[in-house]
Design goal:
Blueprint: E1 2-4, H1 5-13, H2 15-23, E2 26-28, H3 33-49, H4 54-63, H5 78-95, E3 98-99, H6 103-106, E4 107-114, E5 120-131, E6 134-143, H7 159-168, E7 172-179, E8 185-192, H8 195-213, H9 236-240, H10 243-249, E9 250-252
Parallel strand pairs: 1-5, 6-7
Antiparallel strand pairs: 2-9, 3-5, 4-5, 5-6, 7-8
The structure holds iron/sulfur cluster (SF4).
Iron/sulfur cluster (SF4) is lined by residues 14, 16-17, 219-221, 229-230, 233, 235-236, 239.
């Protein structure tokens, strides 16, 4: 089996949701405009570091979705997103704080770490490069709100950065956050990950895989007033057995239903 950060974090958040997604094949429909735009924007960033016309690349990538009925956030539109993206690309070039040497090698790196047995852990790292002259592992994020910067070193608890640091052995990590708000802004947030955090993350991975392999998938809603993790979970329709909700949010991986007979073995 190959595991990733997304899989392990989904299992830790709610084991039942993990089962729906990775064993039963129920995948969230790809209609979230912000997420699709984020992918287009990251392709434009790659073009920037390769010395290409990144604005043209952003238009070309995003143009594909101009007439596609996507789910836009409150106040967002196709035009608004592209304008914010262009503004952020210009700002990024003006700041000139990030350097990626040999972009073909140091952008979108695939890292594999063998795990006990025949398992492995895979991660795709956005970039390894210099921020303000110092080498960092870099993760890009596009978002509509600023990342919190207080209290100091809050970023060192970010589980995704800990995971990427664990798999690469690079302690200096950074988030470059492209904030799509009224006045677009870029945050360059840096932190260091400790060796002890690598060990703890490794233990978390082993524990989660052990539970997955022993077939433990209890629902873990995290419900506690007023926060309710189920309301933003794409698998809510499956848990509540509400077909219209399933149809509106999910698609099933082709062939996944052929394995439904396995569920009856639990009964
Ligand atoms: S709806 Fe709640 S309990 Fe069901 S899979 Fe999602 S998070 Fe888990």
């Amino acid at each position: 089996m190959t595991y990733s950060y997304t899989q392990i974090s989904q299992y830790v958040r709610c084991p039942r949701s993990y089962r729906y997604r990775y064993l039963d094949g129920w995948k969230e429909k790809d209609t979230r405009a912000a997420m699709i735009f984020g992918r287009c924007f990251e392709t434009a960033l790659t073009a920037y570091f390769r010395g290409q016309d990144c604005v043209a690349v952003l238009f070309k990538q995003w143009e594909v979705y101009r007439d596609v009925p996507l789910d836009y956030g409150k106040g967002d539109s196709w035009d608004k997103l592209v304008h914010q993206g262009v503004h952020l690309l210009h700002q990024f070039a003006q700041d000139d704080r990030v350097r990626i040497r040999r972009p073909k090698k140091n952008l979108q790196l695939k890292m594999i770490r063998p795990l006990p047995g025949a398992d492995q852990f895979v991660a795709y790292i956005d970039a390894i490069g210099e921020i303000d002259g110092t080498c960092h592992l870099i993760d890009w994020k596009t978002t509509t709100s600023r990342y919190p910067e207080e209290p100091q070193d809050l970023l060192s608890l970010d589980p995704q950065l800990i995971c990427y640091s664990w798999i690469t052995g690079i302690r200096e990590v950074a988030l470059v956050v492209f904030v799509r708000k009224h006045r677009p802004e870029i945050q360059y947030l840096k932190t260091s990950i400790r060796e002890e955090q690598w060990q703890e993350f490794g233990q978390l991975v082993h524990a989660a895989i052990g539970q997955i392999q022993s077939g433990q998938f209890p629902p873990h809603s995290g419900i506690r007033f007023p926060a309710n993790g189920c309301t933003s979970c794409p698998h809510l329709g499956l848990c509540l057995e509400k077909q219209p909700l399933i149809d509106s949010k999910l698609v099933r991986r082709p062939g996944a239903s052929d394995l439904d007979w396995l569920e009856h073995l639990d009964d």
